[in-house]
Write a structure and sequence with these properties.
Layout (H helix, E strand, L loop, with lengths): L4 E3 L3 H11 L5 H19 L5 E8 L2 E8 L3 E8 L6 H7 L4 E2 L1 E6 L6 E7 L7 E6 L2 E2 L3 H12 L4 E9 L1 H10 L5 E6 L2 E2 L5 E2 L5 H6 L3
Parallel strand pairs: 1-11, 4-5, 4-6, 4-8, 8-10, 9-10, 10-11
Antiparallel strand pairs: 2-3, 6-7, 12-13
Helix pairs in contact: 1-2, 2-3
This protein binds 1-O-pyrophosphono-5-O-phosphono-alpha-D-ribofuranose (PRP) and uracil (URA).
Uracil binds next to helix 6.
């Protein structure tokens, strides 16, 4: 297993992924669970953020504490499906700035087509959490990392709910330093570029557009 790819096997994450995968799960529940999984994944994916010592005064005395040090955070969803992961993460990191990258995958070529990119002006000083529930061929995530790097981002973490080995290989080839956090690494892609067994089309299931 690639040392920069982390499959988050926390029981709560795994249980929630099982509900997402079910064909019968409706859009309301799907949306809620995507957000919950994103929150739990964020908790795991930020384990190594640096801390520094500080002191605070409690009502009873002085306490030695630890507070976050280093870069501030930015959350960047890949539209549209990545939007479903934003609120869960902002619940944990409310001060994070939010950028958006609009990409859709051409159904014939499977290549990503860009339609929007708006990032925090100081993105180069931030630790970026790049969000998309699905890493299939890896074309969308690779292009999004490219946009972030063009705009100066130096530290990027990818968060996907379900990843395919093909997508992981693509990111390793194009952006070997970027860690990938996912809740499941599936078998592979079908002839239409969908992850098998996957969960279907994440954007359609979040927004009810199937
Ligand atoms: C889906 C998904 C990823 C992309 C993954 O988005 O949310 O962005 O496909 O595929 P890839 O790894 O092969 O690039 P889609 O293009 O369906 O757009 P949507 O989110 O607007 O539905
Ligand atoms: N995009 C999705 O939403 N699902 C897949 O399985 C592949 C790409």
């Amino acid at each position: 297993m690639d040392p920069k790819t982390y499959v988050l096997d926390h029981p709560l994450i795994q249980h929630k992924v099982a509900i997402l995968r079910k064909q019968q799960t409706g859009a309301k529940e799907f949306r809620e669970i995507v957000s919950e999984i994103a929150m739990l994944m964020c908790y795991e994916a930020t384990r190594d953020l640096p801390l520094q010592k500080a002191q605070v005064d409690t009502p009873l005395g002085r306490a030695q504490v630890q507070v976050l040090a280093g870069r501030k955070l930015a959350v960047v969803p890949i539209l549209r499906a990545g939007l479903g992961m934003v609120d869960g993460i902002l619940d944990l990191i409310p001060a994070a700035k939010v950028g958006h990258i609009g990409l859709y995958r051409d159904p014939e070529t499977l290549r990503p087509v860009e339609y929007y990119c708006k990032l925090p002006a100081d993105v180069e000083q931030r630790e970026v959490l790049l969000l998309d529930p699905m890493l299939a061929t890896g074309g969308s995530a690779s292009a999004a990392i490219g946009f972030l790097k063009e705009r100066g981002a130096k530290s990027i973490r990818l968060l996907h709910i379900i990843a395919a080995p093909e997508g992981v290989a693509r990111i390793r080839q194009d952006h070997p330093e970027v860690p990938i956090y996912c809740a499941a690494l599936d078998e592979g892609l079908n002839e239409h570029g969908y992850i098998v067994p996957g969960l279907g089309d994440a954007g359609d299931r979040i927004f009810g557009t199937w």
